[in-house]
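Minutes, methods subgroup
Present: GH (chair), OT, SY

1. OT presented the first of two proteins processed in the latest run. Sequence and structure tokens recorded below as shown on screen.
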Amino acid sequence: MKKLITFSICAMFMAAGCKETPKQETSAPASTTQAVPAVPVAQQAPAEAAAKMVDIEWAQALEMSNAGAFLVDVRTAGEVAEGTAPKAVNIPLQEIDHRLAEFPKDKDIVVFCRSGKRSVAASQKLLAAGYTRVYNVLGGFMAFQK
């Protein structure tokens, strides 16, 4: 009889121990996900913000340029000769890798091209090179209101 009681008590402890393990595993991830506040990227410190390209419209691009952002036209010199945005610096897409020193690390970089495809490629190159404040103008120069 003693053996039966001892066996029953051991079985209860083992069953109780087995039931606790899943509770601990499922509760741990919930507490870690709640610790991260939902803060917009614009309000995060540069170290906290994930480096990613942000799409913007021309109105915002021009405001940013007037406030000191580095506005870059990644079209060819021939395309730029036909017109460009005020304060824009021409650094063609093909030359970005060799001219990275011309891009300031401490300013927002606003990139545009003719239609928006090359500026996406340029923005990705800048992000890969370690730039974190990269903005792509939607629609490129074709969407620019002259």
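2. SY then presented the second protein from the same run.
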Amino acid sequence: MILIKKGTVVDPADNVEQLADVLVGDGKILRIAQEIAEADLQAFCGGGAHCEVIDAAGCIVAPGLVDVHVHFRDPGFTHKEDIETGAKAALRGGFTSVVLMANTKPAVDSIDTLAYVMDKGKQTDAKIYTCATVTKGMAGKELTDMDALVSGGAVGFTDDGIPIMDAGLLERAMTKAASLNVPVSLHEEDPALITDNGINRGKASEHYGIGGSPREAEISMIRRDLEIALRTGAVLNIQHISTREGVELVRQAKRKAAAQGTGGIHAEATPHHFSLTQDAVIRHGALAKMNPPLREESDRQAIIEGLRDGTIDIIATDHAPHSKEEKERPITKAPSGIIGLETALALGITNLVGERQLSMAQLIAAMAANPAKMYGLPAGTLAEGAAADIVIFDPDASQTVRDFASKSSNTPFAGQTLRGVVKYTIVDGRIAYRHESC
């Protein structure tokens, strides 16, 4: 058993924000109370069980974070990351549940590959879920056996990394996903409009003398796919949104969906898109190259406003490990993407809560309750009887970003000092990560 004492419990799923004690046992949340006295503890323990006491004074006690957009590169690219090291990075960042993207090699488009990923996930201390691909081989030509993949344990569908250009095929996929009651998550960039991806067309592309990725590449795809979702009633997640126009399109679509009473429109923002602009790729080169690219300050502000008003309801890292050698290639040859699991919470505290853009409850909702709800995961809450998946963090402590649990270190945030330090990550009532200071 674990008794967490004197922390500030923040559980947006149950509208709880109070100074309280939390008692954990048998993998569950047993009780949350202003104070759990010795007599209460004896009643729960039966007088015999050992109980570890964690002093959480000055810390936030929240549901374990849930990241619904990570790349663990396994199978096929395990020199970048594998499921074991990805899980360790997640736990260090306060994430107890993650949803893997399916663009591995082979892609997760068959029961065999799905089973491989799920079996490896069960060998870690984190809760590992995975999507399957929408199309076979992510080729955009033929739908996977979506029924079989959901029966096999896939929690949703995505061809993340490759946009689905055949609108008719996508509509059939969304119709099927709606019948299966699982979400479709989409990477929204029209490759026909892009010359060199990963760099915003504008100041950044001009700096490198390349074509870059124009904002319309994202906007046009978001517009099309929102219309399909509204027609089909599918649960749609617009991934890693980067443009102010895209945010507004989602805002309007959410209003239409609410009026229709159909489906669910969701959007996710990454910590790098609410923290950085295209100036970062000029300063850091390929370490700040990602798809979609970092854009303008007005886009960053629109993303923050979208998080504030609930248009963007999910913060997801798009954790995308690459080797040092890959990222040291010339800017047009280096792969896109950065790691994010170990910095996401601190970036949210530093750049959103610390700047009074979001409350702590809003941040935790976007990083735990909302993503869990969209994917139907048993996570994101501290309700009594729920799984004891918990993160304890000090929002006022500082950390300098270095020494990653991930195999990779490709991030423009390395060397920066951020607020917010994860002290404990607890999964099913077991301490899966403990900070060195604890």
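Chair's summary of item 2: The radius of gyration is 21 Å.
Next meeting: continue with the remaining queue.
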